[in-house]
Amino acid sequence: MKLYPHLFIDGAWTAPVEPRYIDVIDPTTEEAIASVAMGGAADVDKAVAAARAAFADFSNSTIEERIRLIDRIISSYEKRVDKFSEVIAREAGIPRASRAQVYGPIQHMQVARDLLRSYRFVSRLGHAIVRREPIGVCALISPWNWPIQTKVIKLIYGLAAGCTMVAKPSENSPLSSLLLTEVLDEAGVPKGVFNLVNGSGREVGQAMSSHPGVDMVSFTGSTGAGRVVGATAAATVKRVSLELGGKSANLVLPDADLEKAARWNIQRCFFNTGQSCHAPSRLLVHASQVEQILPFLVDEASQFRLGNPLDTATTMGPTVSARQFETIQHHIQGGIDEGARLICGGVGRPEGLTRGYFVKPTVFAEVDPKMKIATEEIFGPVLAVIPYENQDHAIAIANGSIYGLGGYVFTSNRAQGYEVAKELRAGRISFNGAATDSLAPMGGYKQSGIGRSMGVFGLEEYLETKSVYGFQEEAETLPVIHG
Ligand code: NAP
To answer: 0.90 cut: is pTM over it?
Structure first.
């Protein structure tokens, strides 16, 4: 079993002040594959001090320097794509076939780099020069379900803005973050600009979000933990960016291609073993068409090849941990107990898999919108089919959630589809399964979050705004923003 004894602070691999180790468990074999040193509050202090010290220089780096730095990070990352895909298969059960997990980060880095070429950090409004300046030291707290991408989006926009940072990955996925740190180190990220402190949310995460030397917290994770982070950060009035949970609805209107909608929904909802924040985990179908759509759902769910995520033929790996497995089992049993109709799947491991945290792809019909399987984020391959009477009723069900992350609509009527998209109270809507892109903002309404990531909206999360008066002559040479 490999030992990882270091954090990364002030440009050097460093032992924690009080070393403690946790085992990283491979969710396929349930065996420990690595032992990783965890830091504590004292290490956060050191990392924040290093980031503060580095801020003076890095915040004044030129745009060209940051573009070149991102280019070097991309090259260094690309050399390790295979390694990343192996590491996340082993630490989080993510199939090697999920190419988006390792190639997606490259695209995000390219978008951030290209944006730097056109973004106007200095402009004019009225008589003032308006400057967008790096916000300072950022705390980056990320989850395990997209372990590389969530971290890369945060750090690359932070670097693009000229910020320095302290990062903490999930305890379930520290290995990919250690590898990512190797990439940054090799690419020549200046000393102190990026620091990695592995550790628990309760200790290291809280130390980061309460730290007076941190100017901004960018958090991706559950709504429960996000509430705690937001409350903690409020004491020192930090900027907070929260990307939280979801319970997204897919509205299938009566004129939609039912088979296409059903198959797409299963693929999108069960991708990553259902552990995706934007999963369309509520499928809203006209009451008269429910029986028609169910066979397509069952057939599509049966197409997944469950097994070892290192095998490139595997399309569904295990869930990330024993805890996650238990939570999902609890929800499935809860659905049965609440009287929903189990169409496929159910409690227990899938046939033939006696080890590993594998879950049966599960579909429930006759789900009442008030049932827990319709209101709580399960974060597993479990779909709730909810009948509706008419379009207004469907929209009311979709919006009747504390969450507002994603929304989906299937219809053959484009105008009607767009009307529904306008009505949905969620941050990202997709019509007839349209793919998303990395330029447009991503984030949630309601308890799905605060702020947006990606593209220009994502960059601006890491920027402060300053109005400077008395330089009217200079201001007049600058482009006007917002008319
Ligand atoms: P989580 O349990 O909330 O953990 C997320 C991160 O926060 C981990 O690094 C965790 O550390 C840390 N953390 C936990 N409690 C904390 C606290 N009190 N203070 C500071 N940090 C704390 O979520 P997860 O299970 O890793 O990820 C799944 C969740 O993320 C789902 O709800 C999913 O919807 C959401 N998600 C949202 C998006 C989005 O874009 N909206 C994207 C991906 C995932 P430890 O676990 O190491 O203790």
So the answer is: yes
